Amino acid sequence: MKRFFRRAAAPVLGVLLFGGIAAKSLAEPSFSSEQVDLMAAACANCHGTDGRLVGSVPALAGRPAEVLEARLLAFKHEEQSDTTIMDRIAKGFTDEELAALAAHFAAIDPDGDDDSQAEQEPQE
Ligand code: HEC
């Protein structure tokens, strides 16, 4: 009877995992949405939850990903003179992580409800 269950799950799991990784790498350089969410949480203190704060700190939500990425890379590589803090923050991330963060905030609807974020993750 035991034989019936013998390792039946292992190949299935392998295919699922491998398939998931292969599909991901076609889009962004292989960050899970959980990883990006964790990185983005570090921005919320200043930019507001989901980057929707409007005030002295610039809003991020819904801005074009190319613009956000270019600004983050400029902060990181000290090509941006009008910076108080973002230069130091951007240095804590790789260029790929900054690109993923830019895509994350660009995909958020600036007028959306707080609980609508799940539908707005970039292509899963
Ligand atoms: C300590 C507060 C603080 C944190 C944390 C923070 N930011 Fe900022 N951010 C700012 C301020 C202030 C500016 C305005 C530029 C400056 O003074 O450096 C800014 C500017 C920016 C800009 C440029 C926006 C524009 O319109 O030019 C981007 C993009 C950005 N931040 C992304 C991020 C991301 C992504 C994170 C998380 C990894 C993050 N920030 C974390 C305070 C913060």
Description:
The chain has helices spanning 9-26, 33-47, 65-76, 86-90, 95-106. By secondary structure, it is an all-alpha fold. Helix 3 packs antiparallel against helix 5. The chain starts with 8 loop residues before the first helix and ends in an 18-residue tail after the last helix. The structure holds heme C. Heme C binds next to helix 2, helix 3 and helix 4. This is C-type cytochrome. Residues 1-27 form the signal peptide.
- Number of helical regions: 5
| CATH evolutionary superfamily | Cytochrome c-like domain
Percent in helix: 40-55%
Protein structure class: mainly alpha
Terminal CA distance reads 39 Å
Mean of all residue-level pLDDT scores = 77
CATH architecture name = Orthogonal Bundle
Question: Short description, anyone?
Answer:
With 124 residues, this protein is mostly helical.
Question: Which key features would you list for this structure?
Answer:
about 120 residues, mainly alpha, Cytochrome Bc1 Complex, Chain D, domain 2, globular, binds heme C
Outline the secondary-structure elements.
Elements: H1 9-26, H2 33-47, H3 65-76, H4 86-90, H5 95-106
Helix pairs in contact: 2-5, 3-5
This protein binds heme C.
Heme C is lined by residues 42-43, 45-47, 57-58, 60, 68, 71-72, 83-86, 89, 101.
